[in-house]
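ok trying this again, last paste got cut off
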Amino acid sequence: MLEALQYDFIQNALIAGILVSLAAGIIGSLVVVNKITFLAGGIAHSSYGGIGLAIFLGIPVLFGATIFAVLTAIIIASITLKNKNRIDAIIGIMWAFGMAIGIIFVDLTPGYNVDLMSYLFGSIIAVSSEDIIYLSILDLFIVGLVFLFYKQILSVSYDSEFASLRGINVKFFYTLILILAALSVVAAIKVVGLILVIALLTIPTYLAEMFAKRLSSMMILSSLLATFFTIMGLIISYYYDISSGASIIIVGVFTLLLAKLLGKK
């Protein structure tokens, strides 16, 4: 693997993997603690509409996915706060709508023949220098907001009613958490794709929960674990010429299963 580091695309893949792992560890912890994995999954698949729209308009795909994902997160937050009994139906509708819009826009784009499977299952080897810059900006934004509002986010995540009594705007921070989840989803598109993104957000966190007693510790450990999964997945992908996104998730799943088995013993 060391000889492969001389290639720019391998270097970009490694940097992108680390950047995405940082976001996945931090926001994945919030997704698991707030029990919004299904909501995050809905946002992930809905953002396919942004990919299709970006292709149709000829704008950067990650930028289009970001706009669509954030708007979806805001809509889902506003609806689910008022209609919690219908969360599953709402997510299902947004999920299907986003995917359908994406497919239609791609079909309407003349002469477009790029393999869309790379957006569904990831193509970390195809990460460009521009993607690295964009991922860096997303990471700075995510980390900055979590650091700035950590106490409020912590309160809302563990006891929203108590947080409301303390004067914390629960609706705002609930929406913010979903927006941050949307940004993390976009960041992970190039690495593992929309289909596997929720696994990258949740597997490291489920594993970190076994050892971390605080949310901050969970975020740090989740990021480190996600980085380990990504690097090991890249190595396996390189040597066996298989999908990098799937390799990353398989490494994560086997590590989680191994930890659970050892924990029981």
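PB: full thing came through this time. The mean pLDDT is 87.
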